[in-house]
Design brief:
Blueprint lengths: L1 E5 L8 H19 L4 H8 L3 H10 L4 H10 L7 H22 L1 H22 L11 H14 L4 E8 L2 E8 H22 L7 H18 L9
Antiparallel strand pairs: 1-2, 2-3
Helix pairs in contact: 1-5, 5-6, 5-7, 6-7, 6-9, 7-9, 8-9
Length: 227
């Protein structure tokens, strides 16, 4: 399923959402400009669970080396499709959540969801030496927040069925629940097979849960009464 748009108009200009999209895009082009050095760049600024585990015991005082990659990894992407998929999803869900939370709270919320997603990935694979990159954990948090804020929204969705393409409008909660279940199932399958297939499934699961639970406390009072 590919989301095309939702039915909830935003009442304010999504400055933070656009800024995050621009920041991720600029970071991606910087990666591409590095050529062969890009691999070393991603290894340094991506989050490597085994390295975090090492610092937690050997150098607990080295805050930047230990926690910095948790933040920087949220702005790196492994390819153009990875970037476009994440940024498109952020655009669809981010503007509405930003509209309800306000710009400052939305930015903090986005970052905290991303950090929580990265940490859950760490807990499910502490010895992994593979760097984790991508904004999908933070965006999963935004999706979790959208799930709480807009229970009556509807989503225009593209569904490819073999060689046919079907565009349907479905409740956003159905779309988000199906998406979440896919991440959960894939997470269990990857854990059982001891391989993630290049996708941090548990980061998606953790981001969504933290985003949904956090939004229950953060949402403005009026959003409890409106769709």
């Amino acid at each position: 399923m590919i989301p095309l748009r939702d039915t909830i108009p935003s009442n304010s200009f999504p400055l933070v959402t656009i800024t995050l999209i621009v920041a991720n895009t600029l970071a991606y082009f910087h990666e591409q400009s590095l050529g062969p050095a890009a691999e070393r760049f991603i290894l340094h600024y991506g989050f490597v669970p085994a390295r975090y585990l090492y610092f937690s015991y050997a150098e607990p005082w080295n805050v930047i080396e230990r926690f910095g990659p948790m933040f920087s990894s949220m702005f790196l992407h492994g390819g153009l499709l990875h970037l476009l998929g994440n940024m498109w999803t952020l655009w669809i869900f981010g503007d509405n959540v930003e509209d309800r939370l306000g710009k400052g709270r939305f930015l903090v919320y986005y970052i905290l969801c991303g950090l929580a997603a990265v940490y859950l990935h760490y807990l499910t694979g502490r010895t992994s030496g593979v760097p984790v990159i991508g904004a999908s954990g933070a965006i999963a948090g935004i999706m979790g927040g959208y799930f709480v804020l807009f229970p009556h929204a509807r989503m225009v969705t593209l569904i490819p069925i073999f060689i046919f393409i079907q565009i349907v409008t479905i409740p956003a909660v159905v779309f988000l629940l199906l998406w979440f279940m896919m991440q959960l199932v894939n997470g269990f399958v990857a854990s059982a097979a001891q391989t993630g297939g290049g996708v941090a499934w548990w980061a998606h699961v953790g981001g969504f849960i933290v985003g949904a639970v956090g939004m229950m406390f953060l949402r403005p009072q009026q959003s409890r009464l409106s769709p």
